[in-house]
Amino acid sequence: MSHLTREEPTLAELSRPKKRAVKFPRAACAKDSQPLIPAQYLRKTRPRLPELSELDVVRHFTRLSKLNFSIDTHFYPLGSCTMKYNPKRNDTLSTLQPFLWAHPAQPEELSQGILEILYELEQALVEICGVRRFSLQPAAGAQAEFTGLMIVRAWHRDHGNDKKIVLVPDTSHGTNPASAALVGYQVQTVKSDERGLVDLGDLESHLGPRVACLMLTNPNTLGRFEVHIQKIAKMIHMVGGLLYYDGANLNPLLGTARPGDMGFDIVHLNLHKTFSTPHGGGGPGAGPIGVADRLVPYLPAPLIGRDGGCYFLEPAHPKSIGRVHAFYGNANILIKAFIYIKTLGAEGLKRVGEASVLNANYLLTRLEKIFHVPYPGRCMHEFVVSTLKENPHGIRTLDVAKRLLDFGFHSPTIYFPINVKEAMMIEPTETESRETLDHFVETLETIADEARHHPERLRQSPHTLAVSRPDEVAAARTPKLVWDEPPLASPDKSPEGILALKSQR
Ligand SMILES: Cc1ncc(COP(=O)(O)O)c(C=O)c1O
What we know:
The chain is built from 17 helices and twelve strands. By secondary structure, the protein is α/β, with parallel strands linked by helices.
């Protein structure tokens, strides 16, 4: 783990006057050329750019990359994020030259290959989810939610309904209420019952003519399958509302159950979870949005159509909410999803879902011996635990999560969902081996032992990383984005020397 323990100076701190990576020869005509930019727009001082050799830059970024946790280096059980291993083959194939050279403004007759792939991807997603059509445009789950709620609003307006309320369960992902509020809806929260499912009595009490939509993810963020989903669909439809499926948790249902069959009217998928692009890292992603028959005219345009053997962009339907992304969306992510689906096939996808559920239940069964489990019973692809069962020194979930880093595990999601105190949400995914899962359990058993006998070791962890316990609120609220100090006059110009001087300041 030693490579994780070192801090890294910034490029500005490593900078030394006159160091260069490359030096271009001066053009023979340079002296005579007239400045192309008028004098008033030319800067008066030189920009303070770091001056470094190529080797300095290569080493800096390589060292930085080694400070990272990643799926390729560590188990990454980040609940609700489906951080599974994605085959490298899909990256290679999706970046073949013909894809890189294809320009989205090319005429349709020169884009038949890519249009066929996107058309076929839509057909596959339609089959997997049991809806009528998909638009591939949205670039993330949250953007797809926003798009779906615009469709909800357009549908209700078209039918003369003045509906103002969107319902979300108390386990919902934060983007659900945020997207509803952005589209102008009032958000009301529905409680969960003692099993962690939507409380049907509480749902009933919120229903009325002003309810436009209920947003649900199934399995929900406690990793529980909403067993009353068809009843819930009926209840919403009875008051003229629509049912929205947040498909960020589709992974365990692949090939086994379809949101359309459960009664959902609108479905979004996070291709950057389930279909071969990792969710972490802030993008790019793809969040296709699918709808039942009656909502197809409202989808973002254009959709891709087929006439015999030819693919084309369908003209926008007059009711379409318009575009939400340039061209067809994030093409590279869409191509990867297509390759993933085609190479696994229907049977392979089903096995993905089943293995993700098996792995999660294996971990849950072993971990319920040492952790409180707020909603006991079998789970789907993920589950939530709370504090340690034997906890005489009041060790918190944050301490357990931080200590895991010392043992080479990325932390699970913590303090979410917010209806569970001291929540730790674990999603192993289908791609982890039995050995890795066993090693994870044994590590948590060691940590549980430390919690009883060496609590300070946990409270001060991690001990082996460059950064230990940053003030996360301050980092999020007042990020330092501009480097504004003069370069350090360090006598020792090595990264170690610079860091030593920095720590004295
Ligand atoms: C249940 C759920 N819904 C929605 C989202 C939002 O997806 P995105 O991060 O692509 O905007 C997430 C992301 O983790 C999620 O877990």
